[in-house]
Amino acid sequence: MYHRLTRAALLLALMIALQSIRLFVPIPFFISMFVIGSAVNACLLLAVEKSGWKSAIVLAVAAPTVAALQQFLPSPLFIFPIAAANVMYVASYRMLLTVNRWLAVGAAASLKMVGMYMAISILVELMNVSDKLGAGLKMMFGYPQLITGAIGGVLCYMIMKRLEGARS
Question: What's the pTM value of the predicted model, to 2 decimals?
Fold first, then answer.
């Protein structure tokens, strides 16, 4: 039990450190979104594999909360749809992992993209965001989420392969 909790804590710390890169390194936003998003998604899937689904859900909610605290999100209201999409990502990955790893990654990334795009679209409409900003937000929370979700799955696989020989 303590091993799982320790792994979850380490993954949470790693995830926060990775998200903090954008505060210290001047990386263009679009590149930052892909690099940090992929790394965070890898942490979420590693949490499923090494710490269990409950820990992964904690990380799924923590990720957008940290982003909001770093003022990366346009409003704290965006925490909720992003957290929900992250939970969908983690849950679908866990459910399909026993069937096929790559099916799990593909389905999880697809569900995350669709869920996040729909939720952000609704939130943008409810907040009466300008058309230009709304289009940018929908784009940011659309297809890039599919890409970062898939890359996160590949990174998770690569890390899991490296950890195979390590003691559980």
Answer: 0.93
Torsion on CA atoms 49, 51, 56, 59, rounded to nearest 10: -130
In this structure, which amino acid lies at residue 5?
A: L
Domain positions in the chain: 2-163
pLDDT at res. 1: 65
Cα–Cα distance for residue pair 9/13, rounded to 1 Å: 6
d(CA 83, CA 58): 10
Residue 15 in this model has a pLDDT that exceeds 80: yes
3-class DSSP assignment, residue 36: helix
CATH match for 2-163 among 1.10.600.10, 3.30.565.10, 1.10.1760.20, 2.40.50.90 = 1.10.1760.20
- Residue 57's pLDDT band (boundaries 50, 70, 90)? very high
Residue 62 CB burial class (10 angstroms; 0-12, 13-18, ≥19): buried
State the Cα–Cα distance between residues 90 and 47, nearest whole angstrom: 9
Distances (CA, A) of 70 to 50, 101, 162: 27, 33, 32
